[in-house]
Specification:
Elements (H helix, E strand, L loop, with lengths): L2 H18 L10 E5 L5 H9 L4 E4 L2 H14 L4 E4 L8 H7 L2 E5 L2 H14 L4 E6 L15 H11 L3 E7 L8 H13 L4 E3 L6 H6 L4 E4 L1 H4 L8
Parallel strand pairs: 1-2, 1-8, 2-3, 3-4, 4-5, 5-6, 6-7
The structure holds pyridoxal-5'-phosphate.
Length: about 230
């Protein structure tokens, strides 16, 4: 797995983007976040060599083990935190990551705001929406999303760029992607972080501006090794 898969994913994103609408300065091609969780620096390095800039990790501690070295070796890396963030990890996360996709509660918004001020490093963020209203999943309920975005902006001064979701497994994702797009419109946000290996073409057809793709690039994940 590697370069050929990366090229194929990029090609599919381009084709799906044209099905969504013509590309323009206002509507640039969606960005691919290569999700490298569970893969080590040796496996990530060739993808960096191929020019890929955006990467996603879902755990702060795991990312700390590989990304400082890779960020020193390659210019222009944009590292996205796509997994849940505990408030006691906020300081480490802000120091290492460049974008946070998982703002899902007021306590976290507050902790991030405090750390952005303390560190002088203000990161763009996404609000995570529990689009399928699944009890086991993180995220703001769809009905509370617009209000929560306003709280993040007005009370905590966060630079909210868009919404992020992980639709329920085993159901067609399209209606959920459409709903996230509607919510973003209602909150006057322009970025949509949606679509994974199984459904990124659909997400792009529905207006995703960031897709988060892991296994289609890096191959099957072996959690037992970590
Ligand atoms: C792991 C993960 C992905 C990538 O999943 P794949 O199915 O391997 O593409 C995307 N988003 C989040 C939040 C993830 O945790």
């Amino acid at each position: 797995m590697g370069i050929a898969q990366l090229d194929e994913v990029n090609q599919r994103i381009k084709e799906a983007a044209l099905r969504f609408g013509p590309l323009s300065e206002d509507a640039p091609a969606p960005k691919l976040i290569a999700v490298s969780k569970t893969f080590d620096a040796d496996q990530i390095d060739p993808i960096l060599s191929a020019g890929q800039k955006h990467f996603g990790e879902n755990r702060v501690q795991e990312a700390q083990g590989k990304w400082p070295t890779l960020k020193e070796k390659y210019d222009g890396i944009v590292l996205h935190l796509i997994g849940p963030l505990q408030t006691n990890k906020v300081k480490d996360a802000v120091a290492l990551f460049d974008v946070i996709h998982s703002v899902d509660r007021e306590k976290l918004a507050k902790a991030l705001a405090k750390e952005f001020t303390a560190s002088g490093r203000k990161l763009p963020v996404f609000v995570q929406v529990n689009i399928g209203e699944e009890p086991q999943k993180a995220g703001i309920a769809p009905s509370e999303t617009v209000e929560f975005v306003k709280t993040c902006q007005n009370t905590y001064g966060l630079d909210v760029r868009g919404l992020m979701c992980i639709p329920p497994a085993g159901a067609p994702a399209a209606p959920y992607f459409a709903q996230l797009a509607e919510l973003a419109k209602g909150a006057d946000l322009h970025e949509l972080s949606m679509g994974m290996s199984a459904d990124f073409d659909t997400a792009v057809e529905m207006g995703a501006t960031y897709v988060r793709v892991g296994s289609a690039i890096f191959g099957h994940r072996d959690y037992s090794a970590h």
